[in-house]
Known about the structure:
Elements: E1 29-34, H1 62-65, E2 69-75, H2 81-90, H3 106-112, E3 116-121, H4 127-131, E4 135-139, E5 149-153, H5 160-177, H6 183-207, E6 213-219, H7 221-228, H8 231-255, E7 258-262, E8 268-269, E9 276-277, H9 287-290, E10 294-297, E11 304-311, H10 315-322, E12 342-348, E13 352-357, E14 360-365, E15 371-375, E16 377-385, E17 388-396, E18 400-404, H11 409-441
Parallel strand pairs: 1-6, 1-7, 2-11, 3-4, 3-6, 12-18
Antiparallel strand pairs: 2-10, 4-5, 7-10, 8-9, 12-15, 13-14, 13-16, 16-17
Amino acid sequence: MKKRARYLIILCLIVGGIPASAGETPDSVVLLIIDGLGSYYIYPEFMPHTLSGTPLEKIDAPNLIEGDARVINIRVPVPMTGPGHSVIVTGDPAAEPDTLPITTTIFDILHDEGFIALAVMEKGDFSGMRREQDAILYAESNSIDEPVFKVEHQHRPVPTEIIETMEERCSLMPEYMRCAEGAAAYQRYNRFAIETAEDLVEAMTENHPDQRFILTINVGGVDSVGHHTNHVTYLQVIEGVDSDIKRLKDICEEKKIAFILTGDHGMSFKTPESRGGHAGDDYKETPESIHTPLVMSAPNISPKIISGDWGQENIAPTILSILDLPNLLSTDSKPIPIKKYANLYVITDADSVKLYQDEKLIGEEETGRIRFKDLNGTYRILATSGETRIEKTIVVTEDRTLTLNMPGETTKRAIETRHAIGIILILLINTTGIILIKRITR
């Protein structure tokens, strides 16, 4: 069973809407994970080096780094594909593929909200990630030389057009790789996944505009070329991805779909001519291996470059924040403050919840699903249930989720139950003692 703290969830809308200037909530999200893409090779703030300290060339990648928000420092806990993907979708810095089935993921939360989960995954995916998807096109062979792709879907309903699109795309894969050699082979391998994602987004938005979805894309050629060739070819393949993703980003902007681009880990090179690595003892602590890009676009994101130190574990709560959903993940990781507004979600069994700022009543809700919107600053929250009151002061500068459990009838019943159990135990002990005394005195 997934660990879900949802038993007292009372969420969402309170009187009034988010001002038009704050931007609208995107209905869906595209998450592009570029396997092996290190931010040191594309961010203007960084300069990559070999393990011995020799400077390496980098490239201009406007489509990869341009978005509404770009986070400069994203550090991965473990520079490996399995842990990287697991952390990205759980927000848990200790997540591993083996723990994914028992950890709350963004897919679990989005399923509860009516989303469907679609995926296109190349080299580097794993079975736990595949099982989180409602429909997935993935690389069964895990090979670029002889790629074999397969479509799987779960019992949850998926539009017929999506399955048909995935199956049609599978049949087109051999043509992508025909006569491809060197950097071109890796570029075409990546292009197949990106263009498949374009077709899926268009199929969903044109045929099922009211169905919300998350589309996760794992592009595998950048990591593979880093391991098998050298730094120069690695950069050439990144340039190919930069060119190929422009149309996908344009479609997402046109359809008002959130677009998130990141990597699971980076890549390091001993020399410019050597093959790269990221998980070995020589590589796993280098900045080129442990820093990945994070670029995001959505109608409700403020254009900005975000400094400070952030981790891969902050990505999952940030995705939920962009979608205006509370952070119900099994982790304490916080969203990165990138939206034009902040929400306060209240999880409570109170009869009434009031929010004040400087003694001014901001909002009040007696029952139902509570979300206080468009906040920034210090607030006082008052929750009441009968004669019981809970009052807290809270600072809201980014999305927060607050749990307020009222000590009401449930608590009283629990106390009464404990008292009853205690009385029964005392009676049993006394009765047992009397019986033993009688046996001894016979």
